[in-house]
Amino acid sequence: MKNSSERKNGPFRYRNLFLVALFLGVAHWIYLTWDNPWRVPRYGLLTKKVVRFEWDRDHGFTKFDVKAYPGDWFVERLLRGLLSVKLRPRVAVYLKPSKWKEAEGDTVFTMVSFCPLVLSDSLGTDASEVRDPTKTPLMHAAESGDIELTRNLINSGADVNATDQNGKTALFYALKSSGEAAREVTQLLLAAGAKANVADRDGYTLLMRAATNGEIGVVRLLLKAGANPNIKNPVGDTAVSLANREGHPDVAALINDPSGRPKAF
Predict the structure, then answer these.
(1) Phi and psi (nearest 5°) for 55?
(2) How confident is the model at residue 255 (pLDDT cuts 50, 70, 90)?
C-alpha cells in the first residue's frame, strides 16, 4: 500500500488538475455543440453576450435577462444567476449617477466561452446602450431632424406636448438637430400646437436652450410663437444672459430687439 508521500510524488500528484481540465473540456464541448441561437464559434476562447434590462430608480432592475446558457435546466439557471450577480453592479454604474427615473437597454459583455467568467470592464469589454422608455416616436423623429417622419406622426395624431421623464417635449429634441432641419421641425411642431413656453426638469425653457445653442432661426420662431424672454432658470439666468455667455451676441440682440416685447436683462 502506497503511503501519502508516494501518492504526493506519484501519478496522483496531478489528479485534481486533470479532473478540472476534464470538466472544463467537457463543459466547453457541450456548450459549443449545443443547438441554441447564442452558440459561439467553435474553439473560440472568448465570446460576447448580451444582457437586456429594465430599471427604475425606486425599484432597481425590474428585468435583467442574460442571453447566455439558454435552457431551463438547473445548471443553466445557476450559470445565468452567477452572471447576473456579476453584471448587475456593472450596469448600475451607468444608471445611478444619471438623472433618469427609469431606463431600458442592452449591455454587451465579454466572457470566457466555457465557464461563467466575465472579463473586467477595465479592459473595455462592456458596451451599453441605454434608452429612455418615455421618449416618444415623435421625439425620436424631431431629434434626428426627420422632417417627413415628423409631419407624418403629427398627421397621425401624435401628442406634440407629451413630455419625457425629464420634462422635455418634442421641441426640445428638435434642438438636438441643427440648421435648417431644426427650424423646419420646430415650425411643424409649433404649427401643430406645441407650447413655446415650457421648461424642462432643470428649469431651462426652450428659448434658453435655443439661445445657448446659438440657433437664431429657432429663437426667432419661438419668439414669434410667444416665448417669454424674461423667464429665469433656478440660478437666475435668462435666455439673453445665456446667449451672451455662450458667445452668441446676435441671438441676444434678436431677443432684446425693441419690437413691443418686454426687454430681457
Answers:
(1) -145, 145
(2) very high
